[in-house]
Amino acid sequence: MKKYFLLFSFVFTSCLNNNIDYNFLNTEFNSFEKGKNLKIFYFSEGSKQFLLKTNTMESFEDYVLVTKNYTQACIPDSTFSDFDLHKIDQDTLQNISVFSDSVLIINYNNLGDSIFQVSAEKIINYSDEDIVELKKNVVLKNNKHNILKTNHLFWNIEKKKLLSLDSVIIQTSDKTIYGCGLYSDDNFENYQIYNIRGEIDIDTD
């Protein structure tokens, strides 16, 4: 499993109170780290992998969650099991970071070029499993200007895969595709959509 290292960069402006609060005495949900208005760079083997911008961040050693039920109603069982979501479908999880109140991730290749960017209202990073869960108003754009919209998306950083069990909308230069369930590589170039319906733009000139 790859190890990702974080470098915190703070955005200072005259009207923002930017800080990280290392409040180790805070026992509420075992939160040990908090931050506001952050840029976080993730590195692997010396190369920048992605940049995360967020208004709010909290990290937890043990995080108690309402039991989730990640059903695979939209997609085949084989695709669902390949993503190992049962590992995060627990009442209590360890080493969790929660980013909220507007979040943006920009993913880079080994040359430092942007592959895709994705925004959401909330992101949960399951550090032990290399899985990122994106929730509410998720919008992903790749470098070919294809756009994915959904309300729930999983990103397996190690496997470089995306998974949605929710309804999805995909917009390209000539068509809009609607579906329920998506499995894709994380640059959003090769993907499978289930329960498809769509619209195709026809040039009449």
Could you characterize what this model shows?
- There is one protein chain.
- The protein is mainly beta.
- The protein is 3% helix and 59% strand.
- The chain is built from one helix and twelve strands; from the N terminus they run ββββαββββββββ.
- Strands 1, 2, 3, 4, 5, 6, 7, 8, 9, 10, 11 and 12 form a twelve-stranded antiparallel sheet that branches.
- The longest helix is centred in the middle third of the chain and has 6 residues, at 77-82.
- The N and C termini lie far apart (53 Å).
- Residues 1-28 have low confidence and may be disordered.
Identify low-pLDDT runs.
1-28
Distance between the termini: 53 Å
Number of strands: 12
Please give the radius of gyration in angstroms: 18 Å
Q: Count of helices?
A: 1
Biggest beta sheet summary: 12 strands, antiparallel
Task: Please trace the helix and strand order, writing H or E for each element.
Answer: EEEEHEEEEEEEE
What structural class results from the helix and strand content? mainly beta
Mean pLDDT, rounded to whole units?
Answer: 76
Oligomer: single chain
The fraction of residues in strands falls at: over 45%
Rough outline: globular
- Helical fraction equals under 10%
TL;DR?
This protein has 205 residues and is mostly beta strands. 3% of the residues lie in helices and 59% in strands.
How would you summarize the topology of this molecule?
Blueprint: E1 5-10, E2 20-21, E3 31-44, E4 47-64, H1 77-82, E5 92-108, E6 114-126, E7 131-142, E8 147-156, E9 161-171, E10 175-185, E11 191-193, E12 197-200
Antiparallel strand pairs: 1-3, 2-3, 3-4, 4-5, 5-6, 6-7, 7-8, 8-9, 9-10, 10-11, 10-12
